[in-house]
Amino acid sequence: MTIDSPVVPLSHLDHLWFQVSGTLCNLTCHHCFISCSPKNRSFGFLSLAEVKRRLDESVPLGVKEYYFTGGEPFLNPDMVAILCETLKFGPATVLTNGTVFKDEWLETLRDADSNSLFSLEFRVSIDGFSAETNDPIRGEGTFDRAMRGVMQLVEHKFLPIITAARTWPDEEETQVVGNFERMLKEAGYSRPRLKILPTLQLGAEEQRTCGYRETERVTPAMMESYDASLLVCEHSRIVTDRGVHVCPILIESPDSLLGKNLEEAAIPFQLKHGACLTCYQYGAICSNVSSGSVARSS
Ligand code: SF4
Ligand code: SF4
After folding, report:
1. What residues flank ligand 2, with Cβ below 6 Å?
2. pLDDT for 165-211, tens place per residue?
3. For the domain that residue 164 is a member of, what is the CATH number?
4. How many other C-beta atoms are found inside a 10 Å radius of the C-beta of residue 111?
5. Each residue's pLDDT tens digit, 96-129
6. Do the domain assignments include residue 31?
7. pLDDT at position 238, please?
8. How many angstroms separate the alpha carbon of residue 279 from the centre of ligand 1?
9. Residue 104 falls within a domain, yes or no?
10. Binning pLDDT at 50, 70 and 90, where does residue 132 land?
11. Does 173 fall in a domain?
12. Residue 62 Cα, ligand 2 centroid: separation in angstroms?
């Protein structure tokens, strides 16, 4: 069955993303939508020089914010220097699993944040409010390690956004969110910020579930009266070591690679992937807004 798919133009390049650690991660979460792992090197690191080149390229285009993801961004040895450099250009957000921080990195980043006109945000992925609920998804011992990372950030006066993939029934949402908030406060994070995300049926999660059915697509009729600015691809692009892709979710799809530079990649994109339906349903993917919407998981 072929479904006619709507096309979304890039209205303005507001957000520039970097797949800064490629597909390399120290964890192997069961729901990772790009199957990142300690062995997955299908996408490589971005160097400080490459990020600097893209930051310079982004200025005349009026980019307003920068985002860093992976894999685990802090496996990239240039990561601290990259964030310090980015804070000269605009606000930066890094999506991390929180398990590999060194205090000296956070001291450097605290200084860079304090001395910048722009802010540095951290999003830390934790998928349950206890080891019992998190570790079956993210790996044994990861709850304690990620919470240690959260507290390192808090000690360095950052207010991390905790992101959790929704792996519980809808009717339990209020209770789960309450449990998260209580756990974070008891740990010493007095002003916790929490963002709940839907899972995307791609990568490792596609293996775990059945993936998207062919009928699960956005149609042109669905886009009538829909605010397309809720979709990341309407105002963002992502740089990988292969070039510039449409969005952080689809980098493994060959059609997501739009060009070698930001200008080439400023072209419309056809929403023909199952993941586009998840974006459509939840909206505001990847924004830092703490809400019940969807965001890119680290
Ligand atoms: S997955 Fe989401 S952000 Fe990516 S092209 Fe589809 S709608 Fe746009
Ligand atoms: S979900 Fe995040 S932390 Fe887990 S394997 Fe994927 S990139 Fe790594």
Report:
1. 25, 27-29, 32, 36, 70-72, 97, 125, 297-298
2. 988 888 999 999 999 999 999 999 999 999 998 888 777 666 667 78
3. 3.20.20.70
4. 12
5. 999 999 999 999 999 999 999 999 999 999 999 9
6. yes
7. 98
8. 6
9. yes
10. very high
11. yes
12. 30
Which residue puts its alpha carbon closest to atom 4 of ligand 1?
Answer: 247
Q: Output the average pLDDT for the chain.
A: 92
Residues 6+ apart with CB under 8 A from 189: 150, 151, 154, 160
Ligand 2 atom closest to Cα of residue 37: 5
276 Cα–ligand 1 center, Å: 5
Q: What is the mean predicted confidence (pLDDT) over 204-231?
A: 86
Q: How far is the CA of 32 from the centre of ligand 1 (A)?
A: 17
Ligand number with the minimum distance to the CA of 229:
1
Query: Is the model's pTM score more than 0.90?
Result: yes
242-292 pLDDT tens trace:
999 999 999 999 999 999 999 999 999 999 999 999 999 887 656 665 543
165 SS3 class? strand
Look at ligand 1, atom 1, and give the residue with the nearest C-alpha. Answer: 276
Structural domain harbouring 117: 7-282
Are the C-beta atoms of residues 235 and 271 closer than 8 Å to each other? Answer: no
Number of domains present in the structure of the chain: 1
Question: Measuring from atom 7 of ligand 2, which residue has the nearest CA?
Answer: 71
Residue 70 lies in a domain: yes
Residue 213 CA to residue 171 CA, distance in Å, equals 25
Residues within a 6 A CB radius of ligand 1: 231-233, 246-247, 249-250, 269, 271, 273, 275-276, 279, 285
What pLDDT is attached to residue 293? 37
